[in-house]
Amino acid sequence: MRENNKKLRIGVLGAGAIGAYVGTCLSHLSHSRDTDVEVVLVGRESLKKSVSGAGNKIRIKSMLAAQQRLINNRGNIVNVQAPALTVTSDASLLADMDIIIVSVKATATEEAGTVLQQVLGRSNNKDCIVLSFQNGVGNREILGDFLPSHNVLASMVEFNVMWDRDDASFHQTTGGFITMETNNHVANEDNFKLFCKLLKATGIQTNVVTSKSIQEILYGKLLINLFNPVNALSGVSVPDTLAVYKW
């Protein structure tokens, strides 16, 4: 590998709307000047069916004008072609990844931890960094119990993505950051920094905070999510809810 041509292998376990969107955006950078990006999306059969039905292409778009300009500059249709982008239901393809994004539902975190324990254990890949892109609290700790030799970091995704299964299109419909945890013990820090740099290059708003701060953010998001029934029944928006003390 040439020194100026770093290759970063990124896997997504649980590639639904958020995971497939983020992974495809990263794959979009695979022809940049100094970095080769290989992305493996591991999802359900419904993702494979959606992509194959669209001619093995994924379409991405964003409601954020600045990000959409970046997408348009590269073309918003991404060919699903290995090694740049692979769509599969076979988690064993994650064995040699540098970064793995876990984006399964919180109720499936233990199952995801079991899968990664087996896959990374068989390949003896202890250098992989695992990022939890999940709602709720405690997901990092659960994954960490299964992967005690790995760096497992918490993250929060603020925005929403709509997945149109008919044409395999993923549309970021709200603004917001991906906020990721870092600490003083991140092994392979160069890979983590490169991942953050690439994420920003896609136009996705990205932030990195301390372990203490990420816990505060995750609990804050949980409280807002718990208020969803109040918002739905009252017809009051989240910002208005937060602005009025009685709520």
- Give start-end ranges of low-pLDDT stretches: none
Shape: globular
**Class based on secondary structure composition and strand pairing:** alpha/beta
**Number of helical elements:** 9
Spatial strand order of the main sheet? 5-2-1-6-7-8-11-12
Helix content: 25-40%
Describe this structure in words.
- Helices cover 38% and strands 24% of the residues.
- It has 247 residues and is of the alpha/beta class.
- Helix 5 links the parallel strand 7 and strand 8 (151-157).
Provide tags for this entry.
single chain; 247 residues; alpha/beta; eight-stranded mixed sheet; four-stranded mixed sheet; 9 helices; 24% strand
Could you give a short description of this structure?
This protein is α/β, with parallel strands linked by helices. The protein has helices spanning 17-27, 45-53, 65-74, 109-123, 139-146, 189-201, 211-226, 228-234, 238-243; strands at residues 6-13, 35-42, 57-62, 77-79, 85-88, 99-102, 129-132, 151-157, 161-164, 169-172, 178-181, 206-209.
Give the secondary structure arrangement, pairings included:
Blueprint: E1 6-13, H1 17-27, E2 35-42, H2 45-53, E3 57-62, H3 65-74, E4 77-79, E5 85-88, E6 99-102, H4 109-123, E7 129-132, H5 139-146, E8 151-157, E9 161-164, E10 169-172, E11 178-181, H6 189-201, E12 206-209, H7 211-226, H8 228-234, H9 238-243
Parallel strand pairs: 1-2, 1-6, 2-5, 3-10, 6-7, 7-8, 11-12
Antiparallel strand pairs: 3-4, 8-11, 9-10
Helix pairs in contact: 4-5
